[in-house]
């Protein structure tokens, strides 16, 4: 487990908490240190503070994904706005915890990321006339470009990264910054409907009582 945090007290708290769950923790106080850690080690997951002294954590996250690294990334942020979460998802983050945070929540979210299983991130996806370029965020259907909103891209990215598996509605709602309320569930159904309209009705499969799957 890689913890990227420049504040000693937070770094120690997070490291100690994760160690209680059996994780071997490596810490990095700068993004440059984190780069070196990633080059020389394999990690199951990372905890990333956005406000690092030598750069923007979201930019680092995006570069990491573009480099082919697929381990889950949980972001620590003092900004609770939905726009921040959407930007993080676009950059390749998997989950968020707002500061100040409860240690129990942090540990629970790390465990939840582990239960989701490995994500098969890819830069491009093609199937049945659909071509998705995740790096450029461009979608084509039968050669025609189709615009997707940021939230639609987040859902498509999540489903494709877990190809062959059902993704629960609650997991999808977490990714787009919502809670599992009736209103949020209805909004999710609208988003899925829009994606189907743009990419084809067979792109997203509904698994009754469980969630959605790609294809």
UniProtKB/TrEMBL annotation:
Q: Which InterPro entries match?
A: CheY-like_superfamily, OmpR/PhoB-type_DNA-bd, Sig_transdc_resp-reg_receiver, WalR-like, WH-like_DNA-bd_sf
Single GO molecular-function term?
Answer: phosphorelay response regulator activity
User: What are the UniProt keywords, alphabetically?
Assistant: DNA-binding, Phosphoprotein
Gene Ontology cellular component annotations, sorted alphabetically: cytosol; protein-DNA complex
Q: Where is the Response regulatory domain?
A: 1-114
Domain OmpR/PhoB-type stretches: 122-215
Q: Name one GO biological process term.
A: regulation of DNA-templated transcription
The record's annotation in SUPFAM superfamilies points to: CheY-like
- The entry's DNA-binding region feature spans 122-215
| UniProt-listed PROSITE patterns | OMPR_PHOB (PS51755), RESPONSE_REGULATORY (PS50110)
4-aspartylphosphate-modified residues are 49
Per the record, the domain of life is Bacteria
Query: What protein is this chain from?
Result: Persistence regulator MprA
